Amino acid sequence: MKLGRLNHIGVATPDLAASIAFYRDIMGASDITEAFDLPEQGVKVCFVNTPGENGTAGTQIELLQPLSPDTAVGKWIEKNPLGGQHHICYEVPDIHAAKAWFESKGKKVLGEPRIGAHGTLIFFVHPRDMGGVLTEIMETPKGEH
Amino acid sequence: MKLGRLNHIGVATPDLAASIAFYRDIMGASDITEAFDLPEQGVKVCFVNTPGENGTAGTQIELLQPLSPDTAVGKWIEKNPLGGQHHICYEVPDIHAAKAWFESKGKKVLGEPRIGAHGTLIFFVHPRDMGGVLTEIMETPKGEH
């Protein structure tokens, strides 16, 4: 496998509206997408766009608020009530090839590829096998990069 | 303040050599910098370069191994023995203006600006005031971006 673009950092929050205000008013973000529900992952999501080099798009901050306490992110927030860094997401050209790669290396892929927040297939790999980092792998949206 | 480039994600590890091998052999990184000691922060450090859009430099992964157990990162590893996401670092054009900005907003800046891993001035802001995210602010190296 070849290391892909660092698409986003997932940051969990107990209060999406407060986090959006924080990124806008304190961090100075001018480009924050509309929030939407992603019921497959049990979260409400929006993206803070950060500037990359030379006018390109940088790595996004994905703000995640649990839709209910009994979701994966809901349980994470219970242990980390302030919120914080939740996962790191890298792009790959082919999600099925990437799944086969991680599995061939003995890494625990969490479930089958499913549609993620960017509308392409994604999966997560268990942090235990990834240096403590919950890692999302997503197929690069067609026509991007 | 205007949101700057997401320079790097700090990932702490109990074993830098093993983490370098992981990013090279599992994640497919081809560009990992030489490790060096940063005694001011109590860590040994190297950077995994990730690709940005259109051939630009992407957000880096900064691998951090504590130089001893009684450092800040050493204590963090004691609580998180696998390692994991430790901090997020954004660039600013002027470190002193950024410090004044965060302080004016009631955010706890941890110490005075000091030289960081990229050779420019940095400071950290307390995660309690930053949505649970330990946040590093660094002055953009001259001549970059």
Question: Can you describe what's shown?
Answer:
The structure is a homodimer of 145-residue chains. Chain A has 145 residues and is an alpha+beta fold. Chain A has a single domain (6-139), classed as 2,3-Dihydroxybiphenyl 1,2-Dioxygenase, domain 1 (Roll), CATH 3.10.180. Chain A is built from three helices and eight strands; from the N terminus they run E-H-E-E-E-H-E-H-E-E-E. Chain A has helices at 16-25, 72-79, 95-104; strands at 6-12, 36-38, 43-48, 60-66, 84-92, 109-115, 121-125, 135-139. Chain A has an eight-stranded mixed sheet. In chain A, strand 2 (36-38) and strand 3 form a beta hairpin. Chain A is globular, with a radius of gyration of 15 Å. Chain A starts with 5 loop residues before the first strand and ends in a 6-residue tail after the last strand. The model of chain A has no long low-confidence stretch (mean pLDDT 96). At the A-B interface, strand 1, helix 1 and strand 5 of A face strand 1, helix 1 and strand 5 of B.
Task: Please indicate the count of domains of chain A.
Answer: 1
**Poorly predicted spans of chain A:** none
The CATH homologous superfamily of chain A is called: 2,3-Dihydroxybiphenyl 1,2-Dioxygenase, domain 1
Largest interface: A-B, 46 and 46 residues
Approximate helicity band of chain A: 10-25%
Q: In CATH's first tier, which class of chain A applies? A: Alpha Beta
Radius of gyration of chain A: 15 Å
Count of individual beta strands of chain A? 8
Coarse structural class of chain A: alpha+beta
